[in-house]
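RETRY 2/3 - previous attempt timed out on the joint model. Re-submitting the same 1077-residue input unchanged.
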Amino acid sequence: MGHFLVVGILVIVMAVFTYIGLDAAGLMPLQASAQAVSIDWLWNWQLIAISFLFSLIVVPMVYSLIVFRRRKGETGDGEHIEGNTPLEIAWTVIPLFIVLALAYMGAYSLGETRRVDPNALVIEVKARQFAWTFEYPEYGIVSNELHIPVNKQVLLKMESADVIHSFWVPEFRVKQDVVPGRVTEYRITPTLIGSYKVRCAELCGSSHAYMESPVIVDSNTDYTAWISTQEKIAAEAAKTPEGQGERLTVRNGCIGCHSLDGSRMTGPTWFNLYGSQVKLEDGRTVTADDAFIAESILDPKATEVEGFAPTVMPPYPLTDAEIANIIAYLKTLK
Amino acid sequence: MKNSSPARGWLFFAVGLVAAYAAGVGLVYAVSGSLTYVHLVPILLATVVSATTLSWGASGFSPLTKGFLGLTLGGLAGYGLGLVIDLLVQGSLDWVTPVASLFSLLIGFTAFFLGVAGLNAVSKGLIWQIIGTLLGAIFISVIRVAMGLAWSGPFLFTEPAWVLGGFMGVLFFLAGSGSVSDWFKWARGIDTPEHHEESHTGWEKYLSISLDHKVIGIQYTITALFLISVGGLFALIFRTELAASQLQFLTNDIKLFGQSGPQLYNTFMSLHGMIMIISILLGIAGMMNYAVPLLLGAQDMAFPRLNAFSFWISVPASVLMLMSLILGGFDTGWTGYPPLSARAPVGMQMFFLGVFTAGWSSILGALNTIVTVLRMRAKGMTAFRMPIFVWAAVATSIIALTATQLIGLAFQLVMFQRLLGMGFFDPAKGGNPVLFQHLFWFYSHPAVYVFILPGLGIISELLPVFARKPLFGYRWIAMSSMAIALVGFLVWAHHMFTSGMNEYLRVPFMYSTLLVAIPTGVKFFSWVATLWKGKIWAPTPMLFVLGGVVVFLLGGLTGPPNATVSTDLHLHDTYFIVGHFHDTIFGGFVFPFFAALYYWFPKATGRRMSETLGKIHFWLMTPSFFILTFGMMRIGLLGMRRRIVDYDPALNFDATHLVLTISGYLIAISVLVFIYNFFNSIKNGEKAEGNVWNSRSPEWQVPSPMPTHNYDQPFEVVGEPYDYGLPGSKYVEFITPVKSGQK
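RETRY 2/3 succeeded.
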């Protein structure tokens, strides 16, 4: 009996210390949504189960290795114990109940994350290689940043233009794939004002790592202010060709790959692009004029820029008028 | 100094290394006009040349020296040939064209085997594979010309040409290597001898077609070790890039095999996954082939020719996997999800073909194992008196036999979507991308049980030997393997909790997934109870068994958070998952595989591996591995996604990633120690012809190395397999034949 008592005490001690250690290790990011609460609650129970079961196996194992080791000069075998059926039944049935409890808790926690608020704010999300675009249908706004008000449920209706992407803000916990050919839904109730990032979680190509966009949880007043600013920007933009061009580049997610300030991203920067000399992969040097820009949009493979080949940009079938607007916009980027 | 000695070898190695590196730097300078000291060309050149001079200095003009010489010269000649062909087709000289790299790889490899052993199964097969690939590609190209289509693409030929070429290359390899000759002879009514490997003796038989299950087992094992090294090398390459945020190593300026740095990252990461998976399948096939007939008392596997075929088809499959790296790579991960995989470069198709071909190896090998176990057991060996590893082998074979078709099918459908415009997974044509995921995971989840069940079987098989106690609850452990295999079929959609499949389906899949914990738990409890009150001793194989138990425990315990849907919504596609499955695979395959190699090495060679080096291997690998996976899981929880070439510096993961990279390198060093120990011990290991581990198992009751036709005398099972500690008990008794020819 002595062995069992010692091992039993050690298992409990080690389980407690393992749990305290894991809990102190700071394993989860900020908790910034209502959905995160029930997920973190379940995660905590998982940590308790992990700590206990880890100790339950490792402690008797290490104990045996020390106490029941073959000592110097010893020969011969251990005790002839072939098995113990009641014990086997016990460690089949008890884990069965643990597992069922865990599954029930999982279903409960899932239900909590799926609570529907019929008055949720609807935002349409478009994912494409390698940018996120957010449209606010109520206001006619389009943005590459997601702004949402705190403590209000948001329903994201998500579509993909090309391959599978996945919407994940670690601080919100919940993750949802964005699948071409269908609309997937993502409900979140942000609870903590702050600036986060949506990070594409499903491998979507060579610049997958950089498919990140700001997600900003605003106070109600800040959110209203942002909406009205955006409405003004949209109204102003509609008046000029370059303004319309700028809106087009937002709507098509162009700035997911092309920087406006000269920094290097997936594609060449647009800063000082118009009228400059561009070295192409095939050795030619061409002037970035109207024809070059139109060709680069309609058939990117034909104008692979040196250092950016092989290109990952798909053709964008825009109209001549739209392309003219974009060119007008590019001319302003100096 | 003598004409050949280790000291002379290292001297030659140093000279070769420095000279070749300098030559490589000079070559780069001559071509590009700029002096670069760290470059792939001098690194590769120095590697192959120094290997040649090392071998030359150490062993004179031996077969291995000839092999490395062939590799160096064949590689250079192939590169030159590729440059010329590319020049003729493109009209301009491109020094880094993938065409040259491809010819360099194929001809270099072939010349290596030619140098080692002249014309044998491998070198003939490879020569015919090259011919078949070219013929297939040219055939399609001719048709395209006749139809007025372009015949050449970015990788010399067009995609359809490469696909048919790749496929015909496999067929030509099989025909050329002689893997199917006996069957053709039978079809023509010609008899063939039961065993014909007597024409080859010594190490050369491992490079020829052999029908002996022990030779095939070792062929599988060596191929697995080669692929593990290749997959590990790929891991080191992308782990190096991850050591710090931003791109430092695989930068955008790189252009290799038609890919930029981040694209290469994706290719290496994807191929690391699939090459490791194939190496695991070959590794378990190696263990099962070698051990199962010996444990059963059989003379061979049930179908020796099918067995040889199963092994040899994995060789052209491996070549296809390497070709996929060069033919533009692919950026989808090993899962190959469409629509991304429908858009990836030609390399994707070579990957599909490679997996498809390797799948045959797995399916046919599984069939063979099941029949062998059902039909060829020794007298008296009832189901519950079989060694426990045999139970694991059967469970794993049932999955491999019945599920592998699904991944082959899934990949084949994408292949057809690309080639023929069939829109299986293209929403624009009424297809459904999520359907692919169901088909894919229907194999790929049970596949992880294919990977781990044999390893868990090894743990159960070896624990009693080193604890000197019966295996606790033998029947429960045997049944738990079957239970895992069965439940494993019902859980696939837990990989798809975020995929957008029917929401309510997620709950039943959560329940079924968590059920896997129960039979797995039975194994753990029984293992601990086996150790309890034993007389435990821990030579190297036992160290790896114990390490495997703890590592697999970590893998198992980090499973339920992925199984419960809500927590998985956070964990899915993060580094947590990467840490979790590396724990399961290292605990369930890598550690037990090493244990099995250390354990049965004396049986195969009559010598044992160095205990000191074995312990260095273990104590270097195990702590590094714990740090690696714990670090992975921690940053995964905090927001590190999987499969990314770069990460946001604002996340403050740089320090952790540096530690992970260092751990990765330490694991690689420990494996190098193992490989040295393995090959050195074949020749110089301490003689061990008896029952090294004092085991009750039948194969240890006869002298090592095992005779060609296994047991000279058949045996009868007269007791329980693991009755350690029961005085006077015996598992097997050899039968003296009364009359000649009687069994």
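The radius of gyration of chain B is 26 Å. Closing ticket.
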